[in-house]
Amino acid sequence: MTRAAIFALKRADLATRSAMDDALAGYGLTSAQLDILLYLEGREASAQRELQAALGVTSATLTRILDGMVARGLVERRSSPADARAKCVSVTEAACEILERLQEQEEGAFLARFAAGFSAEELQILTGWLHRLAANMGDTSQAIFGYGARAPEEECAR
Q1: pLDDT digits (tens, 9 = 90+) for 127-144
Q2: For the HTH marR-type domain, which residue ranges apply (predicted)?
Q3: Is the pTM of this model over 0.90?
């Protein structure tokens, strides 16, 4: 039974990412890029290593994604005023405009599709179970999309 649950969770993640990537293609974004923008949204800046930990990606993966986003003018990366070796990342106005368009034009339909057949209570229970599974597997961040989010590190304060 546990193997079936693991496989079902993996398939749900793959299907969700695929549907998200399809919805984002018209905006020139991927789901990984959206995760970054949503994490950074509403923050003045975030240390790149904090972003890496929150998203659960390697340094090389994050650097590659950020390089493309910097080239497109979606994020800015600068040296930390507190530690020149550290990098701080922030969203640009162009990224904020894309996020606003996504919210207005795509979010409602996507969330309705995702939640189809579930009550609000069931979704809340599912979310709790997913947090527990992540914790069981060693994830301690829970820092993305508001739950357990910490304030930006001081090293990135302007």
Answers
A1: 999 988 988 888 776 555
A2: 1-135
A3: no
